[in-house]
Each structure stands twice: as C-alpha cells, then as structure tokens.
Amino acid sequence: GGLTDQIMKNSNLITDHQYERIASLSKYTADELFGKNHDIKFHFKPDVITNCSKAGDCGFILRVTAASGKQDDSFNIQLVIDPDLYPEDIHFYEEVLSMMGNCHLSFDVAVATSSTYYKDMPVTWYGKPCRDGTNKYWCWGAHWFYWEGEGQPPPGNKYKTGRRYGANAKIRLVVYFYS
After folding, report:
1. DSSP assignment of 72-122, as one string?
2. Per mean pLDDT, which range of 67-81, 97-111, 141-155 is the poorest?
3. Is residue 131 within 8 Å of residue 117, measured between CB atoms?
4. For the segment 58-103, what is each residue's pLDDT rounded down to a tens digit?
C-alpha cells in the first residue's frame, strides 16, 4: 500500500513490463561513435520468431553516418533493413520493423578510470550530437565529452548543467522499444 507500490502499479511511470532494452555489442569513444561512419550491431530475437534456423545470431544493425563538423545535420542513425547488407554473423527479421516504430535511444557510459556504467542516459529528444569549433568537445544535448582538462561545455550550448565525461569514456548505445 505505500508510495512504491503505487508507482510500481502505474504503467505510465514504470516501463519494465512494456519496453525491451537492447544494448549494442560494442563500446565506443565519442570520436568513434560520432565522428566515423560505422555499423552498430545488436543481438535480439523477436518473440514472434519461435524457430530460427538461420546461421549466426538474430539481431539488427544501426548504421551511423558521422557528424562532419560543428552544428551540422550530417549525423544520422538508421536501421539497416536490407538483408543483403548484413554480415554472416547476424541476420535481420522484418518483424523488427514494426517494433522499431516506437523506440528511443539511450546510452550507457563508462568513464576511463572505472568499469562502472552510468546507465540509460536518454538522447532521443536531444537532436543530433555536435562538435564545437575548437574540436575539444562532443555534445549530445546535456551530455558533454571533452578532452582532459577541458571541463566546461562549449560556448552557446543551451544546457547549462549536464553530464561531463572525458573524451576516452566508453559509450554503449542502447535501444528501447515497445514490445
């Protein structure tokens, strides 16, 4: 009957029973994640697939188009839906498409001096990551990745407070979607 019970019974406040959390297989520095074109692999088998006989793991790939400079719109993340673009170790089911319509991105961050992750830093509503003019910072909303000794957000960043991480922090992208 307490407050915790009321929160746990409110589906608008607790999403454990409604959303799937899928972490990427790889970890990246900010330069690797934001500044290079690459694919991010996720292992995931949809519940509707009950008997998979394909080689490799069920999953999906998000393709990253790198940010090319300061405050530009070139950064993009897209679901790869063409099965011919998948490597042999992972395969895609079209059933994932309907699930991804209601998804959002988050990431886990491990600082270079620790193996502890800061979990579930949401980023979907922050738009696109950007680089400052001096190339000392990467920002994704209120998340700032900076070179050692550079502890302030870039000039003009609209988030006055936020999380600051060193440039060598390891980022693992996470996808949440309604199951």
Report:
1. -S--EEEE---GGGS-TTEE--THHHHHHTTEEEEEEEE-TT-S-EEEEEE
2. 141-155
3. no
4. 888 999 998 876 556 788 888 898 988 998 888 888 877 777 766 7
Rounded CA-CA distance 33/173 in Å is: 9
- Distance between CA atoms of 144 and 80, rounded to whole angstroms? 28
pLDDT confidence of residue 157: 62
At a CB cut-off of 8 Å and minimum separation 6, what does 8 contact?
14
Beta bridge partners of 117: 110
CA-nearest of 26, 5, 17 to 171 is 26
Rounded distance between C-alpha atoms, residue 145 and residue 122, angstroms: 15
Q: Please state the rounded mean pLDDT for residues 142-146.
A: 81
In one-letter notation, the amino acid at residue 179 is: S
